[in-house]
Design goal:
about 0% strand; about 300 residues; 10 helices; single chain; globular; mainly alpha
């Protein structure tokens, strides 16, 4: 299978062998082939640099005071909130405007459509780079408990995975993942923005629950496409089919990691925290009784 210089990322990751195995000569999606952040060299460099820079910066901050970055955090969260809602609105409107169904949509879309969903998918992809700032704030504020394997794994892989979606299948069934993700991120950045001002948000744990539901829906969509309707019914290109397999597997790993986090943070961990609080309250009550009796 001939590989051009522009496919250096495919070659570096050995994905040309995957294409060959399935008998595919991948054709980039015309709309975003030359758009910003669509250069394979750039994607490869960013994907490698993110985890390296994360742990290098964490080491550099070890003996330094944490930074608050209040104004920057407020601005960042407000901008991400607006953009996440824009992606949701554009995808939702595009669903009806472009005649989409829940599954088995044409990739690329038919000529004459508004391409609103394709645009939303591309903006969502670009935001994956912007969202590296989530990690930057965690490291600079020295919130090491938030710099988990889940966090780094998610940010490290979601960007290159979505590169292939945008490059080879920037429409079709990819819209569902973008729609679900936009809903989750609208809630998430609303929480971040409000908590920046010191508000205690009671629905924090439900953000993780929404993320779990989002991933479960992604898996259901991909499962229907791959195992139920199959290619006899779904008008998928060869590239879209391989990418559907990849995103299906990636979503499964994320679902397991997010579920494990929710279990430890809000179920097992929540019970332990509740027991500690009750024990502390009992101790205070007992101490107060003893004091009154002594008097």
């Amino acid at each position: 299978l001939p590989i051009s210089h522009s496919d250096v990322l495919v070659t570096a990751l050995g994905l040309h062998k995957v294409w060959s195995f399935f008998g595919i000569n991948p054709k980039p999606y015309y709309l975003y082939e030359n758009a910003p952040l669509m250069g394979p060299d750039t994607v490869l460099l960013i994907s490698i640099a993110y985890p390296l820079m994360t742990f290098a910066l964490r080491a550099a901050m070890k003996n330094r005071k944490k930074m608050d970055l209040f104004l920057l955090r407020v601005l960042y969260n407000a901008v991400l909130l607006v953009l996440s809602f824009y992606i949701f609105a554009a995808t939702f409107i595009g669903y009806f405007q472009e005649g989409y169904s829940w599954v088995c949509n044409i990739t690329p879309p038919a000529p004459g459509t508004s391409l609103l969903i394709a645009q939303a998918i591309y903006v969502s992809y670009v935001l994956k780079v912007v969202e590296f700032a989530d990690t930057l704030f965690i490291v600079l504020r020295k919130q090491d408990n938030q710099l988990s394997f889940l966090h780094v794994y998610h940010h490290s892989l979601v960007f290159p995975v979505w590169y292939f979606v945008v490059r080879y299948a920037a429409a079709g069934d990819a819209y569902t993942a973008v729609l679900y993700n936009a809903i989750a991120h609208t809630l998430m950045y609303s929480y971040y923005l409000l908590s920046s001002f010191g508000y205690r948000i009671w629905w924090k744990q439900y953000i993780t629950m929404v993320q779990i539901i989002q991933l479960a829906l992604n898996i259901i969509n991909s499962t229907l496409t791959l195992f139920v309707f199959e290619r006899s019914f779904c008008p998928l290109t060869d590239e879209a089919l391989v990418i559907t397999w990849a995103t299906w597997l990636f979503s499964i790993t994320l679902l397991l990691l997010f579920s494990n986090f929710y279990l430890r943070a809000y179920l097992i961990g929540g019970k332990k925290k509740k027991h500690k609080t009750e024990a502390w309250q009992d101790q205070r009550s007992s101490s107060g009784k003893s004091s009154s009796e002594a008097e």
